[in-house]
Design goal:
single chain; alpha+beta; ten-stranded mixed beta sheet
């Protein structure tokens, strides 16, 4: 059993103060009966509605989001659009990004209201892997493969943890412009780490996209779109270590 105001707040209807006002305004029903006491106990299986709309209880929510370039990984920002602006208002209240992607970086980002899950994925001790697709201004030297595997000096107190680098075949488009690309898998999240690692071997990142985190991939999710994680995906992530 759970208090009605807590049930509604955790379901993303509003803050505890906001949902108490809704309850006192007689806009909340439980199993078809109007309720006016915020402290009334309900089961998570009860039919709870607000202004005629049924509310599905979820203590924790987990979303995979395809972050576009140009928005910032933050709950709010006075200057720029945030990743949460792509979610409906009722979800924005509780969700927080798992780690961050730079403003100009695209790709896979998780958002959740499960603090322990967030901490687990971000803890360097758990080594949950993150894979990035990078387009560079020049070809990555073959020596970078072993260098990254051993850990590279990017100007911090310690070298990076071992990382896996795959140098992709060089391509040319219709205008004969040469494109150099690589995929890099790391298991930590230092400030601008991927860009700094490539800079350490003389390459500048001109485009960056996170394509995988642990066992999760973007698949066909369009930019700016999101979807809920399945319980199987959540369980797998909770058990993963790099």
């Amino acid at each position: 059993m759970i208090r009605l105001d807590k049930f509604l707040a955790e379901a993303g209807v509003g803050t505890r103060t906001e949902v108490k006002k809704l309850i006192k305004a007689k806009k909340v029903t439980v199993d078809g009966v109007t309720v006016t006491r915020p402290e009334q106990k309900v089961n998570t299986t009860d039919a709870v509605s607000v202004a005629g709309k049924e509310i599905v209880y979820e203590k924790y929510s987990y979303y995979l989001f395809h972050k576009p370039a140009g928005c910032v990984t933050a709950r709010q920002d006075s200057m720029h659009k945030t990743v949460l602006d792509y979610f409906p208002e009722e979800l924005q209240r509780n969700l927080s990004p798992v780690g961050r992607l730079d403003k100009d970086t695209e790709g896979l980002l998780l958002l959740t209201n499960d603090g322990a899950f967030n901490h687990y994925l971000m803890s360097p001790a758990n080594h949950v892997t993150k894979t990035y697709y990078a387009v560079l201004d020049q070809k990555v030297p073959e020596t970078a493969v072993n260098l990254f595997a051993e850990g590279v000096d990017i100007g911090d107190d310690k070298k990076t943890l071992p990382a896996e680098l795959h140098i992709l075949p060089t391509k040319s488009d219709e205008e004969k412009t040469t494109q150099y690309a690589a995929e890099l898998t790391i298991c930590e999240g230092r400030f601008h780490q991927v860009k700094r690692m490539f800079a350490a071997v003389g390459c500048k990142v001109v485009y960056l996209k996170r394509i995988r985190m642990g066992s999760l991939t973007l698949t066909d999710l369009k930019k700016g779109a999101y979807r809920k994680l399945s319980q199987e995906e959540i369980n797998r992530l909770k058990e993963e270590k790099g």
